[in-house]
Amino acid sequence: MKKNILIIFIIIPLIIISQNTYQIAILKYNGGGDWYANPSSLPNLVKFCNKNINTNINENIATVETKDKAIYNYPFIHMTGHGNVIFNDNEIENLRNYLLSGGFLHIDDNYGMDPYIKRELKKLFPNNKIVELPYNHLIFNQTYKFSNGLPKIHQHNSEDPIAYAIIEKGKIILLYTYESDLSDGWENQEIHNNSEIKRQEALKMGANIIEYSFSK
Q1: pLDDT(4) > 50
Q2: 114 exposure class (CB count in 10 Å sphere: 0-12, 13-18, 19+)
Q3: Is the separation of the CB atoms in 160 and 119 below 8 Å?
Q4: 149 vs 133: CA distance, rounded Å
């Protein structure tokens, strides 16, 4: 007599949790400015955000050119440097379309970029005024509160730091941080010898920018 054998399969669901939901990028631009400045800044900012504000960002930072259609793969793009910036017509069109489609560009003047980037921003959005953000703006009141606005991280001179923005339909699509040097503060401590207090200020403000840009 044959015995009936009951075989029970226990199925354990495999749950795959993506640790790299988003990836951000550094913008490679023409004109001679050092777009590659502060190489440790974005990786450090990403680690800080993932740990402290529950983001899920890939720690590998992409590099994207202004003319590249791959720019649309990144919800947040960072741009920095000390010198000249030039956008040609094709780059202007690509970058403008990216921003109007929901992308976000943060430009951090590393001291020396200001006259060049302001010239190019007028070409990028000739009909949008570049405005100075007030201290009570939402970007200063995310997880971290900055009641006096943008912090000054690197003391090149006595000028106050200013956060400029291009706003479309009530939301910032481009943020330009001037006289602050946030990305210097994001770098490894030994590079610029910033105090831990200053580094934390820079990282917290950077986290606010990331948080705001992802909630657009």
Answers
A1: no
A2: middle
A3: no
A4: 8
Q: Buried b / exposed e across 63-84, counting CB within 10 Å, b at 16+? A: ebbbbbeebeebbbbbbbbeeb
Size of the chain, expressed as the number of residues it contains? 216
Q: Tell me: pLDDT of 15 over 80.
A: no
Instruction: Read off the CATH number of the domain in which 207 is found.
Output: 3.40.50.12140
Tens digit of each residue's pLDDT (9 = 90 or more) over 120-170: 999 999 999 999 999 999 999 999 999 999 999 977 777 899 999 999 999
**What tokens appear for 191 in the block?**
């590079």
Given the structure tokens 């094709």, which residue do they identify?
Answer: 90
Domain count, the chain: 1
- Could you list the residue range(s) of the whole structural domain that residue 103 is in? 25-214
Report how far apart, in Å, the C-alpha atoms of 111 and of each of 46, 75, 79, 114, 180 are. 23, 26, 13, 7, 9
Within a domain: residue 15? no
Query: To 5 degrees, how large is the angle CA 149–CA 39–CA 88?
Result: 80
Euclidean distance between CA atoms 8 and 6, whole angstroms: 6
For the full predicted model, state whether its pTM sits above 0.85: yes
